[in-house]
Hints:
Blueprint: H1 11-21, H2 32-39, H3 41-44, H4 50-62
Amino acid sequence: MPGYLIKDTTREEREQLVAESLGNISASCDGCRAGIVEMYQDYIDGKKELKEINMEFRAGYVLGSEKPSRIGCGIY
């Protein structure tokens, strides 16, 4: 794959990239893997770049925004 930007990938390549990147996450904890995959759905759909999604996620912690808790995954 030449890159990971939306303009350089097909939907199938983006799905594969996300799946491979998240492959080491166990789906056995309170549904956390499904939540993480949902977070990257806009990238898979070609709506947002990975950088944008990751920046939005981190901004919640920088600004102190409350996020949904997933106690089974260790995210509080």
